[in-house]
Amino acid sequence: MQANSSKTGIRWSLWLLLATSLSSCALINDYNAEHAEFTRIHLQLGVRYLEMNKLELAKENLQLALEQEPDNIQVQNSIAFLYEKLNNIQLANSHYQTAYTLDPEDWSVQNNYGRFLCEHGKNQQGLELLTKAIATPLNDKPWLALTNAGRCQETLQQAKTYFNLALNLNNSYAPALLEMQKISYQNADYWAAKTYLHRYLAVAEQTASSLWFALHTEHALGNNSLAKQYQKELLEKFPLSEEAQKSASIKNF
Q: Where are the domains of the chain?
């Protein structure tokens, strides 16, 4: 009888241990799910505010996501871009390095960090990363890295090759169309510059740069009334831009 009671006690102990373990696992799973959801929400909010150029709100949300998951590549990549926009180059570089260390094969990190390095004078390192981003089969948007690689080239002809490759893959990619407008103008191919601008305006809004090259393109083609129109738009929409400051002194249209 005592032996049976002992066996019963062991069975109950095992059941209690199993129940406690299952309960602990459920609590851990709930905590992990809540943890991941918190990060996801604040990451999405941070990126959305970045797109809207609401940098203070972007920073607030991305820092919350970073505190929760410092090893999250998307968080590191996004906050690096935020610090770029805030002109904190040192912190931007640090977060890009962290993201790249976490996963050197992530094409989004390769693309962003490569572009960043090119924009800050480290063209060789930047192009190495951009080349990797272009080549990986996992990259479903290679035109992003191709455009960034084009901007990193030393000559217009080399740059043009990359921009054309980008447009072959996505013929409405606005940044590549803007680059081709600029190159066409610089090569005195004014009708091509005008065509690229029209293609660009079918998918995006004017920028200070697009208006600057548009007004000079029309002036070169002898369309002075249209050149004046673009100049007026530039001064009204982007009065603080460098292009507007340069354009204000042009009187001879």
A: 171-253
Please report, for residues 17, 87, 95, the alpha-carbon distance to residue 90 in angstroms, rounded to integers and kept in the order given: 52, 9, 9
CATH 1.25.40.10 fits 171-253, yes or no: yes
pTM of this structure? 0.82
- H or E element: which one contains 20? helix 2-51
Two structure tokens written together for 170: 């996505």
* Contact (Cβ atoms closer than 8 angstroms) between residue 130 and residue 141: no
Amino acid symbol at 175:
P
Identity of the residue numbered 47: V
Reply yes or no on whether the pLDDT at 21 is more than 50: no
Per-residue DSSP letters for 76-132? Answer: HHHHHHHHHHTT-HHHHHHHHHHHHHH-TT-HHHHHHHHHHHHHTT-HHHHHHHHHH
Output the pLDDT for position 33. 66
Q: What is the DSSP string of 22-65?
A: HHHHHHHHHHHHHHHHHHHHHHHHHHHHHHTT-HHHHHHHHHHH
